[in-house]
Amino acid sequence: MIRLEIPKGHPRYESLKRREALIDFYEKGIVTVSGLISHGRGEAFDYIIGEKSRPFAIEAEKAALDRILNSRNAVISVNGNVAALAGKEIADFARKFGVTVEANIFYWSKERMEKIVSLFRRMGLEVLGMNQDALIPGLDSNRGKCESAGIFSADTVLIPLEDGDRAEALKKMGKFVISLDLNPLSRTSRYSDITIVDDVTRTFRNFLEFRESDYSGHSSSFNNASNVKEAISFMADRLRSLKNWPDL
Amino acid sequence: MIRLEIPKGHPRYESLKRREALIDFYEKGIVTVSGLISHGRGEAFDYIIGEKSRPFAIEAEKAALDRILNSRNAVISVNGNVAALAGKEIADFARKFGVTVEANIFYWSKERMEKIVSLFRRMGLEVLGMNQDALIPGLDSNRGKCESAGIFSADTVLIPLEDGDRAEALKKMGKFVISLDLNPLSRTSRYSDITIVDDVTRTFRNFLEFRESDYSGHSSSFNNASNVKEAISFMADRLRSLKNWPDL
């Protein structure tokens, strides 16, 4: 695989660096081929959004953080793409706020689970996932595996880059579901109580930068349906604004 | 890699089958990791378009076909993703109309070139690409390689799923450039004389289905800038129409 040197001044520097990181983690066996395709979908939506955390995203993030910190047992679910894109930020976040992280992957293999758990261990964070003793109802055995001490008993789950079936199943278990997905139209986005339409790395960086006064109380006043509508409207408007041709 | 059985009635059946084909061709060494990410980007734009050939696409396709058939030496450039997604349709098209096809890839390797050429040979079509004796000016030696009997001397080139640098370099050579890209905002789309905003498989199927009276004369009246604007407006409108929440 040929790597191009990405100049720091490139307008899409962050996005191109993220893509490179993902390919590295694919080569390490943490990201799957399916994960690469998913990432491309995310890139397209982020391109339309303009690769920035927009006001609707910031608002959802404040509500999410407030909710997570007021939960009895909030768990962050981490798959291969999430570990590759924002492993460091998630480890920092989990340490700062004492939130549980659980490895949970769509294409299950023991080896890939171990690699994700080891990745976080090397960053000084112990994550759940190697003792999957429970099953999310409504999913087949490979997809539903989770830990009774983690996702299974959590009251709030943050599911970045998650599959729609799993989001729906978690919702049916009565959990408060916070999704993080650049596609506001995805089933995952639709099933969530709080839908964050933003990039996973930017979101965790924002979580780390907010002061308590920024987010405190934001979960009670948050209206998810209208926030998602705002995200979709923003994207439609931005697409339309890019229409001037050929001086794009 | 676990494969899910995709039911024929699934609303996104065609898209999911295409993704599966792409992964097969990745495993065969024809598609690259970078190609998988690119495909994801295309999927997102196609999702917004609604996974159908819309009127702006049909109009661009008619103009493109008219232009190709009235060229002295039109060449279709084929990379790994294009071969994987629409190899059969392109072979049928090239045979029906006697149009030259040339393998031309972004991450060059002799092995991958041979695999693409062999793939077409097995479908009964000889394609150029194994005798790269010329260089597109302005590109480095690996990216600029092409055949003097093919892309180098072509008056018209159809470049599906092409990189922006190469599209620009071909345009600077004075060629009539027809692009095929689901992202109407890409540099490739911007540099083209005719920009087809459609899926590559659907486009070649449409080429094969048009009768002469459908497309004859359409290249002279075609206005590319206004057609691309129409594509972008359509996408913005469709996004906005998908806003109704939660009854998406």
Task: Briefly say what this structure is.
The structure is a homodimer of 248-residue chains. In chain A, 53% of the residues lie in helices and 10% in strands.
Counted up, domains of chain A total 1
Class based on secondary structure composition and strand pairing of chain A:
alpha/beta
Tell how many strands the DSSP assignment of chain A holds.
Answer: 7
CATH superfamily of chain A: Phosphopantoate/pantothenate synthetase
> Roughly what percent helix of chain A?
40-55%
Greatest chain-chain contact = A-B, 40 and 40 residues
Question: What is the H/E string of chain A?
Answer: HHHEHEHEHEEHEHEHHHH
Portion of residues in beta strands of chain A equals 5-15%
Assign the CATH class of chain A: Alpha Beta
* Cα radius of gyration of chain A in angstroms: 18 Å
Arrangement of strands in the largest sheet of chain A: 2-1-5-6-7
Q: Major sheet of chain A, described briefly?
A: 5 strands, parallel
Oligomer: homodimer
Topology:
2 copies of one chain form a homodimer.
Chain A: H1 13-27, H2 33-49, H3 55-69, E1 74-78, H4 80-97, E2 100-103, H5 110-122, E3 134-135, H6 141-144, E4 145-146, E5 156-160, H7 164-172, E6 176-180, H8 187-191, E7 194-196, H9 200-209, H10 212-215, H11 218-221, H12 224-241
Parallel strand pairs in A: 1-2, 1-5, 5-6, 6-7
Antiparallel strand pairs in A: 3-4
